[in-house]
């Protein structure tokens, strides 16, 4: 059985042999470019590269995971990061397509917003206003990087688990 995130071509005329000269390489690149343009010319319409619906679903699920993870006493921000990881892991196990871009963008946005809101509570104090002005954007960018990376890794492990559960085990005959 074939993995769901790989594409197979049934047309034998598209099978390529190793190129023997530079002109063969150039013609192969032009043919590959033409094939990619014909299959994914409208981004988001067929869901081949980016899906706005999946991005919104990712934001909702990852946001819920971050809020629920942040409700764990004592761990605070680590619980939010854990909630982002678990939500992205769940997205990876449920979906049958790879959606790393949407999941990463959703994770980055949710954690950056979470870091920014966390800094607003410090900004009420007179010393906190100066701190917020100097380092607020930097902390939000750090949160975006951590959230995006955590969401992509969670989605990857979820896809890996799904692949392991749905692939057939080869029999030895």
Automatic annotation (TrEMBL):
Chain intervals with Basic and acidic residues compositional bias: 1-18
Domain of life: Archaea
UniProt region (Disordered), positions on chain: 1-30
Keywords: Membrane, Transmembrane, Transmembrane helix
Residues annotated as transmembrane: 50-68, 74-94, 106-129, 135-157
Listed name of the protein: Uncharacterized protein
